[in-house]
Amino acid sequence: MHFVGVDIGKESHVVAVVDESQAVLVKPTTVAADAAGHSKLLALLGAPESAVIAMEATGHYWQNLFAFLTANGFAIALLNPLRTRRFAEEDLVRAKTDAIDALAIARFAAQKKPQVTKLPDEATTELRELVRLRDRWVQELGDHVRQLHRLVDLGFPEFTRHVKTLDSALATEILAQYPTAAAFRSARVGELANLRYDSRHAVGRGLAKSLVDAAQTSVGAHHSEVYQLQVRTLCEDISTLRKRLRRIEGDIERTLESHEVGKLLTTIDGIGPHTAARIIAEVGDPASYRDAGALAAYVGVVPATKHSGKHRPLRAPISNLGNARLRHALWMPTLTAVKRNPWLRAFYEGLRARGKLAKVALVAAMRKLLAAIYSVAKNRKPFVPRLQAPEAPTV
Description:
Layout: E1 2-7, E2 12-19, E3 24-32, H1 35-45, E4 51-56, H2 62-71, E5 75-79, H3 81-90, H4 98-112, H5 122-155, H6 159-162, H7 169-177, H8 181-185, H9 189-193, H10 205-216, H11 225-257, H12 260-265, H13 273-283, H14 292-299, H15 324-340, H16 342-353, H17 358-379
Parallel strand pairs: 1-4, 4-5
Antiparallel strand pairs: 1-2, 2-3
Helix pairs in contact: 5-11, 5-13, 7-11, 11-13, 13-15, 14-17, 15-16, 15-17, 16-17
């Protein structure tokens, strides 16, 4: 058996091969990230049955190579870059080049025998892409709304006293027509009142009159064409992003319906379609982890206890390692679950009754929720809570 280390690059990769004793069989060799490079790599690797290939899962440049090698029958282990970096530090390696990294990855694979990574199914890959695309659009929407707030503060700061949220269809439709206080001063109340911001609702006379009256005494001092252009453009972009988000959320829900595990996760109270999609996007199949504890460690809801000598702190923070995106995504579902899920509510209230702080109890509830997620994925069955029977009353 020989072990292959691949240092991934954008236009080329560096490959090194060692045997089980970590002796170098193939010195670090550069192969292009194209069809010719892939053919050269196959010639270097030999038979797929006798090779284990290791590479770091950084960026997206590894994905085409992973798919190519998997299609040719090779076993591939995707590595956490933190593990390979710590492995190199053990030998006090100070230099860092692509060749050194490729050789270190190969030696890591020979020594640690990492688990082979399975190619995700099509539904999982699609969910991952959809969830991350939605994240980018949500970020863009937030950026646009913050820019719009700045312009409204400059041109008509009193507007938000009457229309509270600038990302709403009501706000963007009004501001697209009347971008600054100067535009409101010359507006007809009836015309503004009849302005429709969706297929069923109009602005209404009360709000229209309030806005026109507020514009007469507004302290906003920026009404030139450049400010009006920015407001109108941002309102168009926000409206477009809202439509895109509605469409992609529908796509996520439809894709989740074809994903066995993802659909089963929604049987857990507190886990909705978008949270289930996020879990699948971040971890793939939760059942692929060794146990529920390993899943919790990946997410990062494990205590980072630090006791040394006489230093015995009463509390320990959670580890700063782990998947922060998934922790963030599970926070609100956990809050919902401790209210609506009788099984998790009983667990949470039991911790609170024993004197645990609310946030400590919520983190513990999140870990418990992850255990339920693991159980559902492992057994491929809907979630059935096991509630403790109430104690019989004493006579």
